[in-house]
Amino acid sequence: MKNITIGIVAIAILGFGIYLFTRDSSGKTPVEQVPAATESTSTPATSETKDYTQDVIGSSVEGRDIVAYHFGKGTKEILLVGGIHGGYEWNTALLGQEVVDYLIKNPVVIPASLRVTVVPVLNPDGLNKVVGTTGAFTEKDVSKSDATVVAGRFNAHDVDLNRNFDCDWQAKGTWQNKTVSGGASAFSEPESQAIRDYIKDHKPTAAVVWYSSAGGVYASSCHNGVSSDTEAITDIFAKASGYPAYESFDFYATTGDMVNWFAKNNIAAISVLLTNHSDTEFSKNQAGLLALFDHYK
Fold first, then answer.
1. Which of 227, 285, 220 is nearest to 249 (CA)?
2. Could you write out the DSSP letters of every residue in 242-294?
3. Is residue 169 a contact partner of residue 44, using CB atoms and an 8 Å limit?
4. pTM of the model
5. DSSP 89
6. What's the pLDDT tens digit per position in 254-294?
């Protein structure tokens, strides 16, 4: 009986010791403690988990980033560029951002063989003049001043970037019935340098550049004729989108044109001119792009 009593006392002492050992400084046992907050199981989008990447391919005269968005991992690259004329053609920059948003939400539309790169705004300083930002904006943000909108066509050096490329470059170019600056030399501007260097490093298969406004798809060439591939994608994009197709832009002489410089470098390239200066015509361009993706898959 004495041994039983000693055993009971020993068990009681041992249990009380365990209780003291497992209590934390707050006086609670682990059973009483509220579990610590844990991270959500939905991981935030990173370059490893999202279906696209983005990087800065250059900067403007005033130091604003020129951003490229990349979709797909294929070996053939299609380059899409908007906003070369900044705020004057703000609807092309807005279209570029709409295409980025669409591809983020619908990555499956890009065939496995393709990589699609979108540069929504090549002239961020010009866009900023007119909408007050280089980020997200709407038509409500656009300046009501015609003089400001026209000024937004040019970069901060007052150069028309679409006269600054090395195809028939001249220091003085033409826009409608006006004389505009083509820069001190071909590629004198940091914005055009950004595209030049990107082309050198990545060698895309094809390019689409958005402008406004005339409503059409225009082939490219630089005294080397329209290539068979350029002719093909001009017709493909035009038929799918509903825009008319043209072999060349003949409204007035254009020197230092970016799309023609692409052609000089053996890149199939087209200019897509939106119908006016306010509509993005997303559905038409979506149809054209999907047709191009199918052509190159």
1. 220
2. ---EESS--SS---S-HHHHHHHTT-EEEEEEESSSS---HHHHHHHHHHHHH
3. no
4. 0.83
5. G
6. 999 999 999 999 999 999 999 999 999 999 999 999 999 99
